[in-house]
Amino acid sequence: MGAHLVIERPGLFSSLQDFGRFGYQRFGISASGAMDSLSLQLANRLVGNPRDMAAIELTMLGLSATVEEGSARLALAGADMPLSINGRPAEGWRAYALAPGDRIEIGAARTGMRAYLAIAGGFAVAPTLGSLSTHSRSAIGGFEGRALRAGDRLPLQEAPAAPLLTLAPEDRPAETGPIRVVPGPQDDHFTPAGLATFLSSGYRVTEKADRMGAQLDGPAIEHADGFNIVSDGIMNGSIQVPGNGRPLVLLADRQTTGGYPKIATVIGADLWRLGQARPGDVLRFSAVTADEAEQVARAHEERLLALFARMTETPLPGTQLSSERLLAHNLVSGVCSALAPLDP
Amino acid sequence: MPIAPADAPRLLDAGDGGLVVEFGDAIDEGVNRQVIALADALDASALPGLREVVPTYRSLLVLFDPLVLSRRALRDEVLALWPPQAGAGEHKGCWRVPVIYGGEHGIDLDHVARLHGLTTQEVIDLHAGAAYRVYMIGFAPGFAYLGGLPEAIHTSRRSEPRLKTPPRSISIGGRQTAVSPPLEIPSGWHLLGQTPVRSYDPRRTGRPFLFAAGDTIRFAPVAPADYGALCRAAEAGEIVAQWEAS
Questions:
Q1: Interface of chain A toward chain B, CB-CB under 8 angstroms
Q2: Which residue of A has its CA nearest to B53?
Q3: ∠A148-A96-A52 over CA atoms, to 5°?
Q4: Does one domain contain both B113 and B219?
Q5: Is the minimum CB–CB distance between B60 and chain A shorter than 8 Å?
Q6: Min CA distance, B71 vs chain A (Å)?
Q7: By three-state DSSP, how is residue B234 classified?
């Protein structure tokens, strides 16, 4: 039997997520995928995984779990959730090697909304329609098509040896400022005043915010000519404005089609910030052109690659190292450069 | 078969990873035919960086990786494929989908009949007598939006949508009818019946989705005894809808 992660306390909503399920939206299948794919990628690289491997997405409140029948290398990244290993405080944004029987406990987020628990090698779970992402509403993917429960035993894949990496505090994502959007595809369904309201007002994230989307509250956006369109495709970050004038940002678990005009679309580089927005947070939006957005996408990717390169080996703590941990460390200290080819 | 040329499409931006190709603003079979033809042509182009295409009534959402495929190159490709030619993408033939109408299977049948001054049998005959086009699959896995509902039973949606409807429902809303997947989805449409057919079944590897946009569907009323047998066959993995080539 290989290593397992055995869930004791599942947290609020913990589910397996990768980059999402592509190619089936034309059959009504929601893409799903990580709400903050930036943190997912960083968590994966901390443990030496390909950046798009499925990890456990934790929401507001983390889980507690035990590693059984094997060892595991893991890292937590994203929202600031307190982490402890065998009762001793540990940190996010760095990888740890756990021995059989070791227990992790992850608490409630102090800031942010979602964190990613990446495990080296990933989960030995069969993908559904090409992805491990969980879409709980249609019971597709992940672990039995649902959020994790107490008692679940997640089988782990064996992982090649790799160093335990850390991302320095100054390198951790912490963006402020407006969320960048490209106006459209139906910005012509709004009056100039309506568009100006949207781009100049603060919109508060309401309690109706989950993996499907975030209902925002703020000044009503004026439609030019009704608020019905013939239903068309929706993408991650589409901002619908229904009859009440309040924007709804559609996110990972969104339905595939919808019949309200979309005033704007959040650019890929800023989507992760919606995944970390908490009810009560106030968001502002600024418009960029599609060409500018393309440049931002390239800069975002370069920055991410730079962060991967800046991850450093975690200094060894002075005490209480098991022989296995030392072994793991010694095995891998020379292979740092071998990580680069993992980049897709 | 060449499609009647249309004006150049509207190309609309959807963030940095999406392009909307809008063909018109009405629900129209000719327009929908073009949407599907372009979706199939783009799929066949295997353009690097193209993630997926989402055809709907009158527009096509093209999702792409902006790091691999530039918006300019994608627009050029779309215009090079214009006007889209329906070829292999045309779905010749018809699905015959068994339906048990009324009773617990279609709790709105009586209401719809009364609303239009028809008998329930007349509603069934009208609904099962027409050929429908799958305009798009959307909203939920395998949920098929069908056009071609006879005008005599066009029915506005319910004012209070139901939060849950029975799996595999056959419903009507406005000028359309629909086949539900084997899931309890919310809906404001009127429920006329239920089919044993599973439009989506993840266990049916190789064919998780039965219908695609562009398909033709006809409904065939079945008796309760046959419905039960067909349900058991579908549960065991059979498709139970008949494909009739034309």
A1: 22-29, 128-129, 138, 140, 181-186, 229-235, 237-238, 255-257, 262, 265-269, 290-291, 293-294, 296-298, 301
A2: A26
A3: 55
A4: yes
A5: yes
A6: 8
A7: helix
Name the one residue in this structure whose structure tokens are 């239903």: A231
* Cα–Cα dist B144/B141, whole Å: 9
The model's confidence at residue B88, banded by pLDDT at 50, 70 and 90, is: low
Identify the residue with better confidence: A281 or B2. A281
Question: Does some domain include residue A307?
Answer: no
pLDDT in tens, A39-67: 999 999 999 999 999 999 999 999 999 99
Q: Identify the pLDDT of residue A329.
A: 43
The reply to whether A208 and A319 lie within a common domain is no
pLDDT digits (tens, 9 = 90+) for A100-146: 999 999 999 999 999 999 999 999 999 999 999 999 989 999 999 99
Q: Would you say residue A138 lies in a domain? A: yes
Is B86 inside any structural domain? no
| CB < 8 Å to B27, chain A | 230
End-to-end CA distance of chain B: 16
pLDDT tens for A221-266 read 999 988 888 889 999 999 999 989 999 999 999 999 988 899 999 9
Alpha-carbon distance B141 to nearest alpha carbon in chain A (angstroms) = 4
CATH number of the domain residue A219 falls in:
2.40.100.10
Question: What residues contact B107, with CB distance under 8 A and at least 6 apart?
Answer: B191
Question: Is residue A256 included in any domain, yes or no?
Answer: yes
Structural domain contains residue B101: yes
Q: How much is the pLDDT for A1?
A: 66
Angle between helices B109-116 and B120-129 (to 10 degrees): 100
Min Cα distance A291 → chain B (Å) is 8
Tell me how many domains chain B contains.
2
Do A121 and A202 sit in the same domain of this protein? no
Q: In this structure, are B115 and B199 located in the same domain?
A: yes
Mean pLDDT along residues B128-136: 96
Q: Which residues of chain B does A185 touch, with a Cβ-Cβ cutoff of 8 Å? A: 12-14, 18, 20, 22
3-state helix/strand/coil string of chain A: CCCEEEEEECCCCCEEECCCCCCCHHHCCCCCCCCCHHHHHHHHHHCCCCCCCCEEEEECECCEEEEECCCEEEEEEEEECCEEECCEEECCCEEEEECCCCEEEECECCEEEEEEEEECCCECCCCECCECCCEHHHCECCECCECCCCCCEEEECCCCCCCCEECCHHHCCCCCCCEEEEECCCHHHECHHHHHHHHHCCEEEEEEECCCEEEEECCCCCECCCCCCCCEECCCCEEECCCCCCCEEECCCCCCEECCCEEEEECHHHHHHHHCCCCCCEECEEECCHHHHHHHHHHHHHHHHHHHHHCEECCCCCCCCCHHHHHHHHHHCCCHHHHHHHCC
Partners of B142 on chain A (C-beta within 8 Å) are 27-28
Question: Could you list the residue range(s) of the whole structural domain that residue A231 is in?
Answer: 179-299
pLDDT tens for residues A61-112?
Answer: 999 999 999 999 999 999 999 999 999 999 999 999 999 999 999 999 999 9
**A244 within a domain of the structure (yes/no):** yes
